[in-house]
Amino acid sequence: MKASTSTASSAPAHNALPPPSVTAGRSSRIAPHSHIKGLGLSSDGLALGDGAGFIGQTNAREACGVIVDLIKLRKFSGRALLLVGAPGTGKTALALAISQELGSKVPFCPMVGSEVYSAEVKKTEVLAEVFRRAIGLRIKETKEVYEGEVTELTPAEAENPLSGYGKTVAHVVVGLKTVKGTKQLRLDPTIYEAILKERIVVGDVIYIEANSGAVKRVGRSDAYASSYDLESETYVPLPKGDVHKKKELIQDITLGDLDAANVRPQGGQDIMSVMGSLVKTGRTEVTDKLRKEVNKVVKGYVDQGVAEVVPGVVFIDEVHMLDVECFTYLNALLESPMAPTVVFATNRGNSLVRGTTDIVAPHGIPVDLLDRCMIVKTDGYAREQISKVVQLRANVEGIKVGSGVVERLATEGEKSSLRYALQLLTPASILAQLGGRGQIELEDIGEMNELFLDAKTSASMIGEGAFASG
């Protein structure tokens, strides 16, 4: 390995931990699809060259753009989207981009086909649970609140009736100010405890719910804003209107959350109830009867205009891993009135449907379910597209590359796969750091190829008997 050598006294032991860095900043994890921000389409639905972090796959992106429009118009129910293509051609990235296009509040539930084979619950239960978690419910609530800037915070003390020592808070007087006026409130001592917990002081903007007594600190009044360019405090304007007002609050939950809350009701606060809840860690199956009851309540809320159903996206990767029972159940789930958008992905051609001995179907999916799917094909990447993806990933991961490195990685990607080329980036940067270089050079890529093998090379070596023991 071409690492720079140093004197024996300064060299750390092989297993020694590296010295702590001076700047202890928190680095966020870089996921394989961190660079995908959307489908990257123009206003008329045409794919841009490299928009929203997406490179290539022009036809597939435009097709997915049409699907997104259908979902937004609520006209995609009862159907599914099937993404087919070779490994590493961006099927998962397309599914993620669809969810990004629909919005951050839309539930996105990814799973792999083999997840259904759980030892704790039935296969159909796993699928039903994922589908329920992908259906959001936006509940609008109108609450009476007291809102304003705190002008006074005075606890009134009284003698403790339980003992002769010390005093206890009898009530607390809170003054609140808005643009329209001021109001003085006399509040319960339990609300004073909530105020202390939120660390509220004079000058903070707060709101107190009239029914529950819950206290929420919004921020510091902008009248106290200082001239600093950067500080941790959030400054908010003085609330408008009266101190006592009705406010609309929006809460987002999923049907899966409602099912879970009802299937395992909370016990008492005694130690046996707490211990019992800790022991029961296994997954609990939700009965159809309970789901129907939840649906009935949700329908009542929707009819009253209190709630709105937000269908999300279920993404099932490696869908050929499901068996014939799961496919039959998926047919029923797709036809349910509150079905989310379903996206499948597979890299198989004609293959045997799992759970059968003689049914060979395209992509390993029964024909009756394929009829419900709109199929989008992903294409392989050309060399110039691979070089663009490599450069984009290097920027996302904060890796500097020397001249000719991107082209060399693009050649590797064309020869083996795009994934292999991207996987070489970070190890090569570590090798460059060991060599005392600030960026990856061609020699680092050459050494990577000595250390690691791509799938095709490894398979050919096995075929030639290179790994056979002598």
Features:
Helicase, Ruva Protein, domain 3, OB fold (Dihydrolipoamide Acetyltransferase, E2P), single chain, DNA helicase activity, helicase, eight-stranded mixed β-sheet, five-stranded parallel β-sheet, ATP hydrolysis activity, ATP-binding, Rossmann fold, alpha/beta, 470 residues, RuvB-like helicase, 3 domains
Could you tell me the radius of gyration in angstroms?
30 Å
Shape descriptor reads globular
Q: How helical, in percent, are the residues?
A: 25-40%
**Overall average residue pLDDT:** 82
CATH T-level fold name of the largest domain: Rossmann fold
Give the uncertain stretches in residue-range form.
Answer: 1-28
Number of domains: 3
Strands, count? 15
Task: Provide a concise account of the structure shown.
This protein has 470 residues and is of the alpha/beta class.
Q: How does this model look, in words?
A:
By secondary structure, the chain is an alpha/beta fold. The chain is 34% helix and 22% strand. The strands form three sheets. Strands 3, 4, 5, 6, 7, 8, 9 and 10 form an eight-stranded mixed sheet that branches. Strands 2-11-12-1-15 form a five-stranded parallel sheet, with helices on both faces. It is globular, with a radius of gyration of 30 Å.
Would you spell out the secondary-structure blueprint of this structure?
Elements: H1 58-72, E1 80-84, H2 91-102, E2 108-112, H3 123-133, E3 135-159, E4 167-177, E5 182-187, H4 189-197, E6 204-209, E7 215-221, E8 235-236, E9 244-254, H5 255-263, H6 271-279, H7 288-304, E10 307-311, E11 313-317, H8 324-335, E12 341-346, E13 350-352, E14 360-362, H9 367-370, E15 373-377, H10 383-396, H11 405-415, H12 418-423, H13 425-434, H14 442-451, H15 455-463
Parallel strand pairs: 1-12, 1-15, 2-11, 7-8, 11-12
Antiparallel strand pairs: 3-4, 3-6, 3-9, 3-10, 4-5, 6-7, 13-14
Helix pairs in contact: 1-2, 3-5, 3-8, 5-7, 10-11, 13-14
Region (Disordered): 1-29
GO molecular function: ATP binding; ATP hydrolysis activity; DNA helicase activity
Biased composition (Low complexity): 1-13
